[in-house]
Amino acid sequence: MKPPTERQLNIAETMLRYHDAHGEWPTQREVAVQMGLNTTNMSPYFGALIKKGIAKKIPDQGRRNVALTEKGETLIRHGWQPSLL
Question: Does the reported pTM lie above 0.85?
């Protein structure tokens, strides 16, 4: 599996910072706004994070339906390591 890109890591870090500050996971729109990105471009990034096991879908959560996995949180808090994939 390919390692996460710098942009994917930045998105995961933004998600974790938002979660730490607000106690809930951000929407894709909130991540896009914080990163200065177009909201229509976010879906492929979230899909890649899910495919790589860094994020996961949360059923029945409406718009706040993507969270970091334990592996994703470790990756962001302690730095990316090939052994995490």
Answer: yes
| 8-state DSSP, 40 | G
User: Rounded to an integer, what is the distance from CA 36 to the centroid of its chain?
Assistant: 15
Query: From 3.40.50.970, 1.10.3430.10, 3.20.20.80, 1.10.10.10, which CATH number describes the 6-78 domain?
Result: 1.10.10.10
- Picking from 67, 56, 60, the residue whose alpha carbon sits closest to that of residue 19 is 67
**Residue 57 · residue 34 · CB < 8 Å:** no
Tokens of 81: 């390591």
Question: pLDDT digits over 14-52, tens only?
Answer: 999 999 999 999 999 999 999 999 888 899 999 999 999
The tokens describing 75, both together, are 């990756």
Per-domain boundaries in the chain: 6-78
